[in-house]
Amino acid sequence: MLKRKLKIGILVLLTAALLFNGGCWSRQEIEELAIVTAAALDTTPNNDIQLSVLIIKPSALAGGQSGGGGGEENPTILVTATGKTISEATRNITKTLSRRIFWSHNRLILIGEDLAKSGVVMLDFLSRERQTRLTSWVMVTGGRAQDLLSVESELEKTISEQLAAMNRNRISLEVKLFTFLDMLAAKGVTPVVLPRIESFTDPMAQKGKQKKLRLNGAALFNEQSKLVGWMEESATRGLMWLRGEDVSSGVITFECPGHPGSFISMRVRDNSREVKVLVGEERLQIEVKLIGDVDLEEADCPTQLANSNFIKDVEKQVADKVTLRARRALKEAKDLQVDPFNFGMVVKNQLPDYWDDVKDKWSTQVFPEVPLKIVTEINLRRTGLTTNSLKKH
Predict the structure, then answer these.
(1) Do 379 and 315 meet the contact criterion of CB atoms below 8 Å apart?
(2) What distance in Å separates the CA atoms of residue 269 and residue 246, rounded to the nearest whole number?
(3) Are residues 210 and 345 in the same domain?
C-alpha cells in the first residue's frame, strides 16, 4: 500500500512539473538568425552613425560554399544602415532582412577615422548588448571602415576570419573588446590606444585581387576618447615594449657587429617591463626597465656565433634597437599629449596622493614634461641548431 502511494505521489509531481515547463522560451533557431561576423562603424555627413555588418549566407552555413578566394561566391553579404545610435542603426538593418541580427559570433569591430575623431564613447551599445562577444577584435582605419569589409579574403573564408587570424599572430598591437571597454571606463588613467588596419594595392597580386589589408601602427586617443593621431609601425613596437605587451613574435634585424653588409635577425621569445616612479625635490621621474629574451633566427656573419664577445655585442645591438623604438614611441605620444603606456595608472597606484593633485592635467601638462629613463636588458638564449655561420670567416 505504501509503495502504491509513493508511486502515485511521484506521478503527480512529474505531471505538475510538465504543466509548468513551458519549453525553451528563450531559444533562438539558427534559421531565424542573421549571424554577424564583422561590423564597421562610420559617420554620415549629418553626423549619424553608419553601421555596416558582414552576415553569413544561409547556404554557407549549410556547407554550400567554400569561399576563401577560390573563385566561388562570397559566403557573406554586406548590409548597411544608419541611425542616431548603433542600436537604431541595428534596427534599421533588421527592417531590410528576413532574419534577426545575431551578434554572438561577431569577431571584428572596425572604426572609421571620422567616427574615431568625434569620439568613441558613443559605442555604449557594445557594453550593454547581451549578445556582444567580448573577445571581438577592435581596430581603427584611416578612412571609412565600411570599405575594408568589401576586400576579398584569399586564405580564409571571410575577411573577418582573416583579420582575426592576423591579430592572433601578434604581429602588431592587439586589443579585444573587453580591453577596449576597460580603457573607456578608466577615463584619464588608461587612454584608448587601438591597432591601425589599412588597405593597400599590391601590384604583384592577381588581377582583380590587388586590394589587400595589413596592420600598420596604432591609433592614439586623448582623455576624451577622441582620435588625435597615428603612430607608425616601428614606434608601435616600442609602444608595446613600454606597455609590457607581448612582443614574442617580433623580429629585430641589424648589421652584424664588426661586419658591415652582413645581417642578423633575432626573434623575441619573452619580454616584460618594470616601472618605478620617483618624486624628486622638483618633479616626478619615471624609470622603466625593459627585459627581453631573444633567439638567434638567422645570421650571415663571418664569425663564431657562440663567441662570448659576439654574444655581448649582439645583446647590446638588440637593446639599442629596442630602446630607440621605445624613445620614438615616447616622443610621438608626448607630442600628442597622450599617455598610452599606462604610466598614469602606475603613478596612481604608487603615489595616490600625488595623483589626486595631477590627474586632471596628467596627459596635457604633467606627462609631457616628465623625465623618463629607459634601461633595456636583453639576453640571448638560443643560437639554433648550429653555432657556426655558413659564411666563411
Answers:
(1) yes
(2) 9
(3) no
d(CA 174, CA 168): 8
Q: Is 63 left (phi over 0), alpha (psi -120 to 50) or beta?
A: left
Residue 223 lies in a domain: yes
Grid coordinates belonging to 172: 602588431
What pLDDT, in 10s, does the model give residues 66-110? 445 445 667 889 999 999 999 999 999 999 988 888 988 899 999
Domain span including residue 129: 29-231
What is the distance between the alpha carbons of residues 48 and 82, in angstroms, rounded to a whole number? 6
Helix (H) or strand (E) segment spanning residue 343: helix 343-350
Judge whether 19 lies within some domain: no
* pTM, two decimal places: 0.84
CA atoms of 160 and 151, how far apart (whole Å): 10
Inter-residue contact 146 to 112 (CB < 8 Å)? yes
**Lookup: cell for 234:** 616601428
| Cell numbers for 129 | 548588448
Q: What's the structural domain count of the chain?
A: 2
What does the pLDDT look like over 216-232, one tens digit per residue?
A: 999 999 988 999 999 99
Beta bridge partners of 101: 34
